[in-house]
DNA sequence: CGCACTTTGTGCATTTCTTCACAAACCCCT
DNA sequence: AGGGGTTTGTGAAGAAATGCACAAAGTGCG
């Protein structure tokens, strides 16, 4: 973590990272037509301990009912609202290699108001190609397109060496939330949110954990 | 994190998650023919603070030279060794949708001894198809193939509802390290290492951070 | 050869995160 | 209406991670 810090309201960042997991667990119960869950059931589904779930929810001022549990619908609404998922989030993907194309088509991105609305690439030979319902635009069009479509989140799926330039372009165009798949630490101005996902790093950590010397271990956000 | 715990040797898990980042930063310097770096330079490249870098390296018993810095080659070797990257890690990818195919072809996977050696899918209509240099095998072949090729790491890129079955199959076949892209908390026996990457969760966190009420914030593994 | 300068390694303080333990709150049954 | 049985919400304890400040250890110049 390099950017800025200090969530304005006092929700710990560790808690924020888990809220989406709780939301998904709730959806799971909803599809089974369960209307009430205990912290124990919900925590089991989410892969955390009940006590942590309750503490996390307490930061939202969220209220279950003692002796009963949580109303699935109500808690879903509260979490959805807390996460800001009751609006639309136009997403742009930059970098149309294997990963970028997969992300552009990934159904996980289509949930909860996230919509891929624009695709960009540097390579002239792919500009104009259709991926899903969208045409790949050139980097030169980025500023205009981002402004016109009100892109809120930029996904960087380029090689490492162009990631910083892309980030600068996105920020310059007004994007203030970036999901970065390139294996570099981006330098970003204060006020720009960034999450990085690094596949090679994940494999490296697994390799460490699986070394014969070290016994069964489970580091980090295993679940 | 739900699985087991307690890295046998006392390297904090937060440190372990950063070691691959340092290794990559070192590679960057090496390609520029730099042979010595200070903790300040290396930390800047890695996106952390110098003091944290030094503290992390101290857990390895790694030694730089006071007044000088670190020898790029030597530190690279030490980190490579500590992470267990001086051997080959055969990887299998299960689930040949968009994401699985991208992962199978992803060059980031090809670094440092990680080699995709087997591909699996449930869908009969894609079994036998070639992706890269490999044929997609059926789930029924999983146990045999994993054993024969000595697969060390299983990557799950299936929908959420089949992820647990796939995990069980992998573990049953002897795989004890899993990289999970399905949005579920896997239940795994003690001694199986697991890292989960959840794209939807990352977007949700970004949405939270970008809500108007909360000012610039940067949660979690932003870099 | 010694002194000034640089940069590491680390004990300690601080902050953040997790877990425990229990009182408060609510339902339901009689 | 009251009491037993649950399950939440939370203060306080404990653990982990981070950041500070400085001593230790090296280089190189005079």
Automatic annotation (TrEMBL), chains A, B:
Keyword Cell division included in the entry's annotation: no
DNA-binding annotation, residue ranges on this chain: 21-60
Signal peptide: none
Any matching Pfam family: Put_DNA-bind_N
GO cellular component: cytoplasm
Localization, UniProt: Cytoplasm
Record key words, sorted: Cytoplasm, DNA-binding, NAD, Repressor, Transcription, Transcription regulation
InterPro entries: CoA-bd, NAD(P)-bd_dom_sf, Rex_actinobacterial-type, Rex_DNA-bd_C_dom, Tscrpt_rep_Rex, WH-like_DNA-bd_sf, WH_DNA-bd_sf
Record-annotated CoA-binding domain positions: 84-185
GO terms of molecular function: DNA binding; DNA-binding transcription factor activity
UniProt-listed GO biological process terms: negative regulation of DNA-templated transcription; response to redox state
Matching Gene3D superfamilies: NAD(P)-binding Rossmann-like Domain (3.40.50.720), Winged helix-like DNA-binding domain superfamily/Winged helix DNA-binding domain (1.10.10.10)
Major localisation: cytoplasm
Annotated NAD(+) binding sites: 95-100
Domain of life the protein comes from: Bacteria
Subunit structure: Homodimer.
NCBIfam families found in the cross-reference section: PRK05472.2-1, PRK05472.2-2, PRK05472.2-3, PRK05472.2-4, PRK05472.2-5
Family: Belongs to the transcriptional regulatory Rex family.
Known role: Modulates transcription in response to changes in cellular NADH/NAD(+) redox state.
Protein name: Redox-sensing transcriptional repressor Rex
Organism taxonomic ancestry: Bacteria, Bacillati, Actinomycetota, Actinomycetes, Micrococcales
Gene designation: rex
């Amino acid at each position: 973590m390099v950017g800025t810090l200090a969530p304005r309201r006092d929700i710990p960042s560790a808690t924020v990272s888990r809220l989406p997991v709780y939301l998904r667990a709730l959806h799971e119960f909803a599809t089974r037509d369960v209307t009430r869950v205990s912290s124990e059931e919900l925590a089991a589904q989410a892969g955390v301990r009940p006590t942590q779930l309750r503490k996390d929810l307490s930061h939202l001022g969220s209220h279950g009912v003692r002796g009963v549990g949580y109303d699935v619908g109500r808690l879903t609404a509260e979490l959805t609202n807390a996460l800001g998922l009751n609006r639309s989030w136009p997403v742009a993907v930059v970098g149309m290699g294997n990963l970028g194309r997969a992300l552009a088509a990934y159904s996980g991105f289509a949930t909860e108001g996230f919509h891929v609305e624009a695709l960009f690439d540097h390579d002239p030979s792919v500009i104009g190609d259709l991926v899903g319902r969208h045409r790949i635009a050139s980097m030169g069009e980025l500023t205009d397109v981002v402004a016109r479509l009100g892109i809120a989140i930029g996904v960087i799926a380029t090689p490492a060496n162009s990631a910083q330039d892309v980030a600068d372009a996105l920020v310059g165009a007004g994007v203030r939330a970036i999901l970065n798949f390139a294996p570099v630490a981006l330098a970003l101005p204060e006020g720009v949110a960034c999450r990085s996902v690094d596949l090679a790093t994940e494999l490296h950590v697994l390799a460490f954990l699986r070394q014969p010397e070290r016994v069964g271990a489970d580091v980090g956000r295993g679940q």
